[in-house]
Amino acid sequence: MTEPVLQDLFNWIDETPSPYHAASNACARLADSGFTVRQPDDHWNDLEKVVVKWGGTVIAAAFSPKINPDFLRFRIVGAHTDSPNLRIKPKPEFGSAGYQQLGVEIYGGVLLNSWLDRDLGLSGRVVVSDGDSHETLLFHSNQPLLRVPQLAIHLDREANEGLKLDRQMHLSPVWGLGDSKEGAFRSFLADELNVSATEIVSWDVMCHDLTPSSVLGLDEQLYAAPRIDNLASCHAALCALGSLDTLPENTIAVVALFDHEEVGSESSTGAKGALLSNSLERFATARASSREQYLRALNRSFCVSADGAHAVHPNYVDRHEPGHHVALNGGPVIKVNANVRYATDAESSGQFQAYLKSANIPFQQYVHRTNLPCGSTIGPITAAQLGMPVIDVGSAQLSMHSAREMGGAHDPALLTSGLSAFFAFD
After folding, report:
1. How many Å is the maximal CA-CA distance in the chain?
2. Above 80 in pLDDT, residue 45?
3. Is residue 130's pLDDT more than 90?
4. Does residue 244 sit in the same domain as residue 387?
5. How far is CA 232 from the centre of its chain?
6. Boundary of a domain, candidates 174, 209, 244
7. Are residues 203 and 296 in the same domain?
8. Mean of pLDDT values over 203-217
9. How far is CA 350 from CA 25, 226, 368, 384, in A?
């Protein structure tokens, strides 16, 4: 029987094919937990629980009933809503050898081969205009529309010795037969959204794998799903914040789910932008905090950067640091890197370990193999932007950045419990 947290994660992932759906669905989930959804340019100072959305980014806050501005602190969980994928170009229609195809651009560090021979749907956001005003509409089609067929082994006898895919030439999906029709994609969107093709101004539309999330394995100890990196961390953060009964005094609990982490976070809605720092200051001033008090509050605050961690791969054990093997279902993983690709240091690690131990939650530690380049997260960015302690934590997984990834069936509940303990610890 699927654990309740895991089944809820499946529902969340399958309903959330794009960052824009992640932001919209996050607002809906928190609204069901008593949060008030506000626009970025609204006043927020009359609320105990507020959530605000910018495109694919969401920032939410819950305030403890008693806050003295001189002792204010933030407890922040940051994650990201985007995942590597294939994104539709502005003029996508073209054809070759009697096939209708769509031009795509590679977004993020995609495992290219994982997108081959999969039935793909489309999702994202579309801007429409009637001439007087613009409106942004969410778009989500689970119709099997696209497929990137792999070249047969008979035509590439060396494929199993090292498949090489050209991003421009080999990843364009097929979506029909016959001559390419200019405007066909725009007309398709118009039909799906019940608007005129002439009303469609622009789009941010991407491909997604149509295979539903599922439990996996002989004893159902595993699960497979698209976009585990990083929708699993988003889900855990939202569940932890939404289920809070009480907060320690002088605390503002914050969840920040950013877009564009997979491409460097440098955007108006990415972690390198001003959204989080501006929002934190607005949350502080909503409780009569001065600028001086806000800046002091940052120094007594703490942030968890929640993102996926690499479990040891049974077929590639040599790619992992020998003394730091991470297991599926082993609990939250504290990620450490001496070159600050992760933000964890001794003090933030010790502090977070205390939170986990207080709730009897097991944890692991990850170090990247020294002779391999290490990826990064929003953790170092947040630490640099805000000047507060940050720790990088996540659930273990395999097949990171694949169109379909794999995790431990018990880890979503463990990470959720760990983040709940972080918010609640006094």
Report:
1. 72
2. no
3. no
4. yes
5. 7
6. 209
7. no
8. 98
9. 34, 33, 20, 20
